[in-house]
Design a protein that fits this description.
four-stranded antiparallel beta sheet, elongated, single chain, 1 helix, Immunoglobulin-like, four-stranded mixed beta sheet
Length: 173
C-alpha cells in the first residue's frame, strides 16, 4: 500500500513538472452548458502543417491615377527534390514588374520558421526585375514538405504566394 502511494505521488509530481500550461482542467468547462469547451484556435501549435502566416490580405488602396504595379513571377513553385535531413538549401525566385507603377514589397513571411525569405526593400520600377531568395533548413524535418511564402505588396491583389517543396531523407542509424 505504501509503495502504491509513493508511485502515485511520483506520477503526480512528474505530471506537474512536465505540464507546460498553467490552466487547470476546470478552466476548460463551459459554465453555461457544463460541457468541455472546444480547443482554443489561438493555442500554440509547435509545428503547424498548413497554417498560413498572418498577413494583411486586403488589396492595396487604389492609387489616385488608377495605375497599379503587377508582380509577374517566372515561377510560383520550386521543388528541391530529395535532400538530406539537416541540409540548408536556397532558391531565388525572379519576378518582373509588368504593371504601370513602382512595385513595393512591404513583407514576405514563410509558413514556418524553417523557411526564411529575403526580398528587395527598394521599389521595383515598371519593366524591371527583382529577386526574392528563399532559404529552407531541413533540420528535424522528414518526408514530403511544402512551405509557402506570402508576399505582401502594393499590387491590386495585395499578396502573392510562392511555394517550395522537397523530400527530406532521414539518414539510417
Amino acid at each position: 500500500m505504501q509503495m502504491k502511494r509513493i508511485s502515485l505521488l511520483m506520477l503526480s509530481a512528474t505530471m506537474l513538472m512536465v505540464s507546460c500550461k498553467k490552466d487547470d482542467a476546470s478552466s476548460k468547462i463551459d459554465n453555461a452548458t457544463g460541457e468541455i469547451a472546444p480547443a482554443d484556435p489561438n493555442a500554440v501549435n509547435p509545428e503547424p502543417k498548413l497554417a498560413a502566416p498572418e498577413v494583411n490580405t486586403n488589396p492595396a488602396p487604389k492609387p489616385v491615377d488608377g495605375k497599379y504595379p503587377q508582380m509577374s513571377l517566372y515561377e510560383k513553385e520550386f521543388n528541391f527534390g530529395a535532400i538530406n535531413q539537416g541540409d540548408k538549401v536556397e532558391h531565388t525566385f525572379t519576378f518582373k514588374n509588368t504593371g504601370e507603377a513602382d512595385l513595393i514589397i512591404s513583407d514576405a513571411r514563410a509558413s514556418c520558421g524553417c523557411t526564411v525569405p529575403e526580398y528587395p526593400k527598394d521599389p521595383i520600377k515598371p519593366g524591371e526585375e527583382g529577386k526574392l531568395k528563399v532559404t529552407f533548413n531541413s533540420a528535424g524535418k522528414s518526408g514530403h514538405t511544402m512551405k509557402t511564402v506570402t508576399i505582401t505588396c502594393n499590387t491590386e491583389k495585395g499578396v502573392e504566394l510562392i511555394n517550395i517543396k522537397s523530400f527530406i531523407k532521414v539518414p539510417k542509424k
